[in-house]
Amino acid sequence: MSNLVWTSSFARGLNGSMRVPGDKSISHRAVMFASLADGVSRVSGFLEGEDTRATARAFAQMGVRIETPSASERIVHGVGIDGLKAPSMPIDCGNAGTGMRLLAGLLAGQKFDTTLIGDESLSKRPMRRVIEPLARMGAKIDSNEGGLPPLRIHGAASLRGIDYTLPVASAQVKSALLLAGLYAQGETQAHEPHPTRDYTERMLRAFGYPIEFSAGHARLSGGQRLRATDIVVPADFSSAAFFLVAASIVPESELTLLDVGMNPRRTGLLQALRLMGADIRETNAREAGGEAIADLVVRYAPLHGIDVPVTLVPDMIDEFPALFVAAAVARGTTRVSGAAELRVKESDRIAVMARGLRALGARIQETPDGAVIEGGALHAGEADSTGDHRCAMSFCVAGLVAGGAVRVLDCANVATSFPGFFELAGTCGFVLA
User: Fold this and answer.
1) Does 259 participate in catalysis according to the annotation?
2) Which of the residues in the chain have pLDDT under 70?
3) CATH topology match: 6-22+234-432 vs 24-232
4) pTM metric for this prediction
5) SS3 category, 47
6) What is the pLDDT at residue 289?
7) Alpha-carbon span 394 to 75, nearest angstrom
8) Domain limits of the chain?
9) Looking at residue 2, what is its pLDDT?
10) From residue 121, how far is each of 2, 38, 104, 131, 132 by CA, in Å?
11) What CA–CA distances, in Å, run from 34 to 39, 76, 114, 188, 266?
């Protein structure tokens, strides 16, 4: 399966309207909080990806009844904040770093022991940044050397709320703390050096849990309960990102992306592309389940290089592979800094994107926390995604404007975040084989 190879070729304009799959971050959290709520919740627009299904399976293992009446829909019969049961075997998070880190916080407060495992890629991702603050709260979590999975979480720990400042801005670490805080005595506060996504805070509030939050800060007290609610999951901005870049760089393109989640802590790429000269218009702006949503109309526009503002970096950390492609074909030089987090994602995304784009003729110089990218023409070649779903899809976008066919290696993991990418991309003009 891991040797799945796609070939992306020159395209002559991307057109039409489309809806990319549901937001991965919101899908994870919707199942988690619905499982902990009192009553029955319906989740619409759920991402049918391997990562989010792994999270749903985890809660099914812990005694939560989850129905699937149709694709992208879940009916979750909540067991209450203290109703989870011990799983009979380790919980497999697959490729989902979000799933593992959030579950670590949630499971730290349970009365039973749990082991969290993952696939080969997830087993190399650092978990110490979650383990250390949870340990300060009283959690007992063992890991492999270097803070790597599996995570062995010992139940019956008496958690206490803490006031914690994250050394590195991370929505996953913040969320793990807040989830542990649900079970802790007293108040839990999280402060960030830069504001990150606030999906956890917004969704806790949607489920009726008392929480205070503002940009870069969140506070809650343990011992409250969640009320079942219905959640509509917007289209995933990170999945839309590949089409925003593709339609911006392929001449004669005009593409409409429907129902895209516009959480301001998520849309840094939109601002960066506009600074580069992209023509992207927001229409039909509205709100659902506490989240802003809009349709995005993107037309081809000649892009130019920029120094990516460091203030945008936390709000576009998952979209940098797509941005690297835009920068590689833009006029002039693009500089990225302050993005060291990219080196510890599903892969070292700076190294993987630099290596793959260089193989296609791009001029990229890596730096410890980013890259310097000189725009120019791309040619035919082979780019290895090393199993990173976002890098694989980004290289497919690069192939649309390359001077010859681009072979993209190791594409199987695209299904973790964007099932049906190959087919959906073909409907708007991608040339994939």
Assistant:
1) no
2) 1-2, 289
3) yes
4) 0.86
5) coil
6) 67
7) 34
8) 6-22+234-432, 24-232
9) 53
10) 12, 35, 18, 19, 22
11) 8, 6, 20, 21, 23
